[in-house]
Amino acid sequence: MSGSADVAPVASARALAARVRAGELSAVEVLESALGEIERRDGELHCFNLVTADRARSAAAEIDRKVAAGEDPGPLAGVPVALKDNLCTRDVPTTCSSRILEGWKPPYDATVVGRLAAAGAVSVGKTNLDEFAMGSSTESSAFGPTRNPWDLGRVPGGSSGGSAAAVAAGFVPLALGSDTGGSIRQPAALCGVVGVKPTYGVVSRYGLVAFASSLDQIGPFATTVGDAAALLEVIGGHDAMDSTSLALSAPRCSEVLDDGVEGLRVGVIADFLDDASLDCAGAVRAAAEVLAAAGAKVEDVAIPELLHGLSAYYLIAPAEASSNLARYDGVRFGLRVDGPDVEAMNARTRAAGFGPEVKRRIMLGTYVLSAGYYDAYYGQAQRVRTLVARAFARAYGQFDVLLAPTTPSVAFPIGAKTADPLEMYLADLYTIPSNLAGHPAMSVPFALGDSGLPVGVQVLAPALGEREMFRAAAVLEAGAAPEARAPVTGGAR
Amino acid sequence: MAGELSAEQVAHVARLARLELSPEESERFAGQLSTILEHVEVVRRLDTTDVPPTSHALDLRNVLRADELRPCLAREDVLAAAPDAEDGRFKVPRILGEAL
Amino acid sequence: MSTDAAPRTSSRLDWEIVVGLEVHCELATVTKLFCGCANRFGAEANTQVCPVCLGLPGSLPVLNRRAVELAMRIGRALHCEIRPSTFHRKNYFYPDMPKDYQISQYDEPINVGGYLELASERRIGIERAHIEEDTGKTTHVGGGGRIHDADHSLVDYNRAGVPLVEIVSRPDLRGADEARAYVAELRSILVASGASDGRMEEGSLRVDANVSVRPMGSQEFGTRCEVKNLNSLRSLGRAIEHEADRQVALLESGGRVVQETRHWNEAEGRTSSMRSKEEAYDYRYFPEPDLVPLVPDEDFIAEATAGLALMPAARRKRLAALVAAADGQPAATSVTDQIATVVDLGLDDLVVAAVGLGADARLALARSANEAAQSPERARELDASVFADLLGLESTGKLSATQAKTVLAELLEHGGEPEEVARRLGYEALSEDALSGVLDEVIAANRGAWERYVGGDEKVAQLLVGQVMKATKGRANGKAVAAALAERRG
C-alpha cells in the first residue's frame, strides 16, 4: 500500500497504562519511544506545532516516581497524548495555528488539560489545525498543512488534522481535538482512527479557544473504540467554569463495550447515501449488515431536513466566530501591527494576523449579523437549527442510534479544494447536523476504499446517548476490515 | 436579497470587523461571500413560520456561581503578554472614536 | 467635532424640557459579574483580573448569583416585573472592552415596567433595569488628557466585568430639577435595597441623559440627544440646562436637532458632539452562547428580595400618615419638605418610634429635619425613648424651643437623659424657686410696667418676659415665665 509504511505499531492506551501502573513498563520509556517516532517522522507529516519534550519528560518521571512509591498514578498513567493547539496550556504556546497568537502563552490550563494530567496522561505537544479550527483539511494552518500518514500527498482532514494524523501515525495512542462541524470525526475518518464528538456540555469548553461557542465540543481521538471511551471518561463530567457544562459525570462507556447490539434499533440515514462516494456509501451498507448480523434491528430512515444543516451551519458558525475572534485586536496579547490610532492598529493587526479562511468567515459572520440582515440570515439559520433538532427527535422516536457516512469521500489530495471554499465546506455535510442539535456522534474506521485509503462510518445518537453509540461502535470495530485502521496492539501492518 | 455584495457593503463589513483589506481581498471576498450566500438561499426559503430559533443546543437554565473570591492573575503575568505596556497598564495608540 | 456656545434665551419658558435617564449602577457584590476577581474600587491597575475578565482566549463567563439577586432587589424596589431573561453580546471594538463585545441583556431583560415615585409624588416610569458588565478604564496620556488630542492611552481592566444594572427611565422627567430629584431618589433606593454603595464620585452611579425640548403644551417628543459623562448631580443639572438651551436656540433660529451622542465638559460647561466619524453603530446583538437563560422561579425571587427595606416613597408616606393623623388633615408643603429631609437622612425610624412613645408628630418631625439633621449619623443612633422624653419636655412647656434644641444638641454630642442634661444646663433650676426670685427682682425694677400689666394691659407681658429672659441670660423658659407672671397677677 503506497505511503502507508509510515503507520507504525502502537499499543492501546489502556494496555500501556495497565503496564505502567503495574511497573512493567516505565512512563519514561513509553514517552521516549513516542518522542523518538515524532523526531524521526514528524518533519514530513507536520502533526505538531510544538513538541514539549522537556515538560513531558518531567511529567513521565513523576508518574514513574508515583508508581515506585505505591501512589495511584491515574487511569491513563504514562500514556502519551497530543493536544490540539487550540487548547490552552499554561506557560506553553497556544497558537490555534494562527500568526495572530504566535508566541502567546496562556496563564492557565484548559479544564481538559488539567484532567488529563491528573489522570496520569503525558502531554507531548500541541498539534496542527486549520487556523482557529476553520477548515476541513488543516491546510488553512498558518504553519503549513499536515500530511495524511496513509498518503503524504493527501490531507488528513480537519480541522483537528494534526491530532488525527498523530494518532494514525502511531506517535501517540490518544489525542484531543475539537469538533464544531465535524472537526474530530472527519479527520478521524480520513486517517483511519476513532474520533468522538460527545454530547454538547459533556466535556468542559473552558480553555478551548472558541470558534463557534454553541457548537464547539472537545473530544477524543484513539486507535480503538475502547481507548476513546476511556479518554472520554477522563475528560468528561461537570465543570463549574463552563456555564454550558452539564451537571453530570462523564458517560461510562467502557462498561458497555461488550454489551453487543441485540435489539438495538438502528436507522440508516438514507438521505446521506445518495451523494456520498461509492466507497463511503458502501461502507455504511456493509456496516449496517454487521450490526444486523449482531442482532440489531436496522432500517433506512429519511431525514431530509438534515441536509439543510450545512447552510444553517455556515451562517451560525461564522456569526459566532466573528464575535469570538474580535478580541484578537493587538491590545492585550499576541500580534500587534502598529498604526497611527487604535482603530488602524486593530485593523492592521487583524489583517496581518488572520489568514484568508478566517477573514472570510469573520466577514461572512459580521455581514449576517449586521443591521437589516440578522433576521434573514442568522435568525432564519437558528430556526432551521430548530428544524434539524426536531427532525432528529422524530427519528430518535423510532431508533436508538443512526448510521451514516462520516464524509462524502476519502482523503482528498492537498490543494484540491483550497480554491473553492464552498467545495471545502461540503466535506462537513454529514457531520454538521449533530453539532447543530448538540448530539453525540463518532466515526469508526470501517473499510478501505478503492484507493487504499480508510473509510469511516458514523454512529449518531441523541443527547446523552453515548452508551448506545459506543455499543454500536464496538460491534462495528469488531466487524471492520482490520486493514482499515491504524494498527494497534502489537501487530505490524 | 442575496445577490452580489457591493464594494460599499464589503467595505462597511470590513470596517465593522476591523479588518484592513487590500483591494484584491475586497474583490475576492465580495465574490466568495456572494457565492456562499447564494448557496444558503435554500435555507432562507424554508418555511419557518412559528418555528422558534435555537441559540443553545441544550435546555440548561439558571447556571450560577456563588459570589466568592478566586485568585486573580499576577500583574507580571498579565502584562507579560501585552504588546505594549506602561505604568502597569496596557498601552494603545490614541483613540479616535468614543466608547459608547 | 463641534461645540456650540448656547446663550440662554428669554423664550425658554415657551419650551418644555423632556428628559429620560439611563443610570448605570455598579452592584455591591464581592466579585465580578462573570468571574471570581474582586469587585473593589481603587486597587492598583490590572491586579484584579483573570483570564475571564481579561477576555483571554478560551475563557468563559459564569454568572454571579449575588449580582442576579441584587438586580432582582432593584427590580422589586422599582415596582418592576421580574422576568425570565437572557444575555446577548453587544459587538463593538474598544480597547477598554477585553472581548470587544459587551455581555448585556437586550430584548429580554430581567426587570421591566416599573416606576419610581418622587417626593413630589410624581411617578416616573421605569422601562427596564437590566444586568450587564462594566468596561475597563482608559487614561488618555498627553494632550492635556483629552481623548482626541492624546498621544496614546493606557488601559486598566480592574473594572472590566464589574456587575452593573442599567436603569432606563421613560422620558417622564420635566427639566433639570426633576432629573436631579430622580437620581437622588434612585440613589436612596439603590442604597436602601443593598444593591449599591451609591458613591457617585467613585463611579458607582453613572448617568446618561436623553434630553429633548418641545413647545409647551405639545404632546409630541422632539428629537433627543444623549448626553454622557455626568458624574455628579451638579453636572447632571447643568448639562440638561445647557443642552436644552442649545436645542431651543437651534430650533428658534430655524435649525433642527440632530439625534446624536454628546459629551458634557464640566470645565467648559457645555456639551459637544462625540461622533468623530460618520458611522452608524451596528452592534450586531446576538444571544450569548456561553450563558444560559435565567429563569428565576417564585422561590428564588422571594428569597432574593426578602428583607428588602422600606423604600423612601413608602417611608415618606408613613410619616405623612403620622402627621395627618395628629393634625386631622393632610401635611402642608413645609411639612412635606421636612418629611423628605428626614427620610433622606434616614431619621424616619426615629420619628416613628418617638411618636409611638407618645411624642408630638409635628414636633418630632421638625426637630429631626432641622436639629437632628445637623449630625444625622448620631441622630440615627439616638434612643427613641430619649428623643420622645425630650419632645415631651418641650411640648409640656418645661423646656422652651430654644432650650430643647440646645438639650438635643447636647444629647447628640455627649448622650445622657434629657431631664438630667436640662438640669445640668441650669434650665430646670429656673423653673421653680430661682425663677420666683428673678421675678421679684424684675417686678421691683419695672414697677410701672407691672402695674399696667396688673391693670389688664396684656401687651406689657412681653416686656416683662423679655426682662426675665435677659436676667436669666436666656436660661428661663418663656412660656413658664409668662405662666408665672399670670399666676402672680392672680
Q: What is the CATH architecture annotation of the largest domain in chain A?
A: Alpha-Beta Complex
Task: Report the average pLDDT across residues of chain A.
Answer: 94
Number of strands of chain C: 15
Helix content of chain A: 25-40%
Total number of helical segments of chain C?
A: 16
Overall spatial form of chain C: elongated
Task: Report the sheet-strand fraction of chain C.
Answer: 15-25%
Radius of gyration of chain C, in Å, reads 30 Å
Uncertain regions of chain A: pLDDT < 50 for 5+ in a row? Answer: 1-9, 487-493
CATH fold group of the largest domain in chain A: Amidase signature (AS) enzymes
Side-by-side strand order of the widest sheet of chain A: 1-3-2-4-6-5-10-11-9-7-8
Which features would summarize this protein structure in a list?
heterotrimer; A: 493 residues; alpha/beta; Amidase signature (AS) enzymes; 2 domains; 11 strands; 12% strand; globular; C: 490 residues; alpha+beta; Arc Repressor Mutant, subunit A; 9-stranded mixed beta sheet; 16 helices; elongated; disordered N terminus
Characterise the protein shown here.
The complex is a heterotrimer of chains A (493), B (100) and C (490). By secondary structure, chain A is α/β, with parallel strands linked by helices. Chain A has 15 helices and eleven strands. Chain A has an eleven-stranded mixed beta sheet with strand order 1-3-2-4-6-5-10-11-9-7-8, with helices on both faces. In chain A, helix 2 runs antiparallel to helix 3 (53-69) and helix 9 crosses helix 12 (375-396). Chain A is globular, with a radius of gyration of 21 Å. The model of chain B has no long low-confidence stretch (mean pLDDT 91). Chain B has helices at residues 7-16, 23-39, 41-45, 75-80, and strands at residues 64-65, 85-86, 89-93. With 100 residues, chain B is mostly helical. In chain B, 38% of the residues lie in helices and 9% in strands. Chain B has a domain at 7-44: Orthogonal Bundle (Histone, subunit A), CATH 1.10.20.60. In chain B, 29% of the residues are buried. Chain C is 39% helix and 18% strand. Chain C is built from 16 helices and 15 strands. Chain C starts with 14 loop residues before the first strand and ends with a helix. The chains are: A alpha/beta (493), B mainly alpha (100), C alpha+beta (490). At the B-C interface, strand 1, helix 4 and strand 3 of B face strand 2, helix 1, strand 8, strand 9 and strand 15 of C.
